[in-house]
Design goal:
Blueprint lengths: L12 E4 L1 H5 L9 H14 L3 E5 L5 H13 L4 E6 L3 H11 L5 E8 L2 H8 L3 H16 L5 E6 L6 H14 L3 E6 L6 H14 L7 E6 L6 H10 L4 E4 L13 H10 L15 H12 L20 H9 L19 E3 L5 H10 L6 H17 L3 E2 H14 L4 E9 L6 E9 L2 E9 L2 H12 L5 E9 L8 E9 L2 E9 L2 H21 L16
The structure holds 3-methyl-2-oxobutanoic acid and zinc ion (ZN).
Zinc ion binds next to loops.
């Protein structure tokens, strides 16, 4: 946050694209309700601009951007569009209800993209830049233009396009490292060169947008800022196309912790970073790597004797920031079966959750059921339980009961009852192991063609009575969705995770997100 010594010229605007570039990566699909929830958290934590989606992509994307625009309190709500009038007009319609709105329109400028993807000559692309920005400006005076594959664009042409975009009314110029190819020195020099050579460069804010293919997205982003860019495009947990985008939590904390060498600041409340990371992981079912900077579960763990000894003497021996500064609470033994509703509500608030009354009711019921089975309930147990409540609140298909016969003598069998839109159905199936039997039973009750791509189990806490958290990824028609299920019984958690993914596929179909949905990075310009 700002302190009296920080000046406006060093303020870096945070542009979050978790709901667009993040959601676009295979398996990270979020439901409508999940997108709304993530957007509300981003808005509360101080994100300046939320790129809420790509409205032309589908009815579902349009509806999400539109509702986020209606609900936003502080952040500018932004939608993405390609360089066609139809895209831009649809985007304008989606963001219309927002108090503050932005159209982000992009076009490839590198030789390889122009020749093979666009099949256009540079002079045609140049004219399109002017046309797309002019069209976007007819809808709003906050327009961002991106030179897709900017880091592999020929410098003279890049400068000409940037100058033309600013003249046509672009207020933010983004030079993305679309393919994660650049290195910090080169990206610094690119911004320095463009800002010096483009005569009207002082009329726009420059933006960085880095992909992590070589693991340098955060370093590159900060290098761009050092060269004068004042907007960083990033995502929670660094999710995004291929190796992902620069992680929001990392760029924010890098500038905060090393403010002595990078004297920049943002409006982000860093104590909300852990909560945001957990929410995005829960709704996308993308696990956060244990040693992930800032938000990984080991980021503040000190295992070796020497380190522990140092920490006991003085925390600064091995800690460059406090866990509290990023919202990490010490793991505590929280509650048991005698804990009441009041204590539960208090604990949820402490963990950063705000649940609607009906969700609270369900979560409390599930907490009590868990407390009956598990003696010691930790913060992580409550988080897994509530995250599941949030992720599965709108599921059409739910587990009613499951009985499994497993052991050394096969075939193993599963008797499964499901609730599908309020109607109960039951079946029995055998399989090569209990999980196989359960998944076959689900297939029998809900026939589908989706392919199982990932099945992963991990324990939420220590101990043999720990809850199991299972992740399942299903793909259908070239699209993948991932979901998690948590339960003290690993087999029940497996059934919940599989059904969670199936529910996501069903909701995508219902929202009209078809296999025909354009993928931004692979779409030819039409
Ligand atoms: O990586 C990229 O180039 C993008 C653009 C749409 C900004 O995501
Ligand atoms: Zn991108």
């Amino acid at each position: 946050m700002n302190t009296p010594t920080q000046s406006e010229k060093d303020r870096v605007v945070i542009f979050d694209t978790t709901l667009r570039d993040g959601e676009q990566c295979p398996g990270a699909t979020m439901t409508h309700e999940e997108k709304i929830e993530v957007a509300e958290l981003l808005d509360t934590m101080g994100v300046d601009i939320i790129e809420a989606g790509f409205p032309i992509a589908s009815e579902g994307d349009f509806a999400a951007v539109h509702e986020i625009a209606q609900r936003s309190k502080n952040a500018v709500i932004c939608g993405l569009s390609r360089a066609s009038s139809k895209d831009i007009d649809r985007c304008a319609e989606a963001i219309k209800p927002a108090k503050r709105k932005r159209i982000h329109t992009f076009l490839s400028t590198s030789p390889v993209h122009m020749k093979y993807k666009l099949q256009k000559e540079p002079h045609e692309v140049y004219e399109m830049v002017i046309a797309q920005v002019t069209r976007a400006r007819s809808h709003t005076d906050d327009v961002e233009w991106s030179a897709e594959d900017g880091t592999r664009t020929e410098h003279d042409f890049l400068c000409r396009c940037v100058e033309a975009a600013i003249n046509a009314g672009a207020t933010t110029i983004n030079i993305p490292d679309t393919v994660g190819y650049t290195v910090p020195e080169e990206y610094f020099a690119l911004f320095d060169m463009v800002r010096q050579r483009v005569p009207n460069s002082d009329k726009a804010r420059f933006s960085v947008h880095c992909h992590d293919d070589l693991g340098m997205a955060v370093a590159n982003s900060v290098a761009g800022v050092r060269a004068g860019a004042r907007q960083i495009e990033c995502t929670i947990n660094g999710i995004g196309e291929r190796a992902g985008n620069a992680a929001l939590e990392e760029v924010v904390m890098a500038m905060k912790v090393r403010n002595d060498v990078m004297p920049f600041w943002t409006g982000i409340d860093s104590t909300m970073l852990t909560r945001a990371s957990k929410l995005v992981s829960a709704v996308t079912s993308f696990p956060v790597q244990y040693n992930k900077a800032i938000v990984g579960r080991n980021a503040f763990a000190h295992e070796s004797g020497i380190h522990q000894d140092g920490m006991l003497k003085h925390t600064q021996t091995y800690e460059i920031m406090t866990p509290e500064s990023v919202g990490v609470k010490q793991t505590s033994l929280v509650m048991g079966k005698h804990s009441g509703r009041h204590a539960f509500v208090h604990k949820l608030a402490d963990l950063g959750y705000q649940l609607a009354d009906n969700q609270l009711e369900d979560a409390f019921g599930r907490f009590k059921a868990l407390a009956d089975k598990k003696k010691q309930i930790y913060d992580e147990d409550i988080e897994a339980l509530v995250d599941e409540e949030i992720a599965h609140a709108h599921d059409r298909i739910k587990v009613v009961s499951l009985t499994v016969i497993a052991g050394t003598v096969g075939p193993q069998s599963a008797t499964l009852a499901l609730d599908i839109d309020g109607k109960q159905v039951t079946t029995q199936a055998t399989g090569n192991g209990p999980v196989d039997a359960i998944f076959k039973a689900i297939r029998a009750l809900v026939p589908h063609e989706a392919k199982l791509e990932l099945f992963q189990v991990h324990a939420v806490t220590e101990g043999t009575d720990a809850q199991a958290e299972v992740s399942v990824r299903l793909s259908e028609g070239g699209r993948a969705v991932t979901a998690k299920g948590a339960d003290p019984d690993t087999l029940v958690a497996s059934a919940k995770a599989y059904l969670g993914a199936l529910n996501k596929l069903t909701s995508r179909r219902m929202k009209g997100k078809s296999e025909m949905e354009p993928r931004i990075h692979s779409t030819d310009f039409g």
